[in-house]
Specification:
about 230 residues, about 30% helix, single chain, alpha+beta, elongated, four-stranded antiparallel β-sheet, 7 helices
Length: about 230
Amino acid sequence: EWDRLEKMFDVSHAVEDYLDSNANIEVKEGNVFYGGESVHNYCVDKILDFMREGLPYQPLVKFLGKLMANPSRRATEELYRFLEHKNMPITPEGNFLAYKGVNSEFKDLYTRKFDNSVGQTLSMIRNSVCDDANMGCSSGFHAGSYEYAKGYASGGGNLMVVEIDPSDVVSVPHDCDCQKLRTAQYKVVGHMESIDAPPLDDGINYDYSDEENEAYAAGYAQAQEDLEESY
């Protein structure tokens, strides 16, 4: 019995060796390696926890491989915590899903040029995306939590589901309780819902003591600002 308990506390026994050559990730003797180098971060801890508990860890391994391919150190440190905090799922391919609010014609609210219909992949040069997390509103494609994106589409728009490769994320702005991120590329994979316009433009009541409503309000306010700047 003691031997069994001792092995449970010994990571090298509790975690099986695993290799994902496509992700360039190897788990060996309780350690995680990327390209042969040992990796230590929040995502690694989660992978080892999942392996110990018998949970499906393979998507996390693929996610880590793509995350480590991201040239931004800040993005690699912030992204997984952001996803877990906002309950955004990771796909079997190691990408993740987020939400984006667009107008009634499935165009972005700022330029009204980018088509966000299901199936579209949108991309821009990475160094065109603002990497300063202290700047809340700046250049780059934005996606975020359900509440934030729904607020963004609240003027009579559409709430879309987008799939993002972790290697394409540039920054997670600190404002709005980190409800959004900036990326160089994403794919529109689903239409979550259409949001009816309110009877009066500012006739929405918010309970600012509630975190979800604060996120909704932040998205709504940012959408109004974008609309004003687009005219």
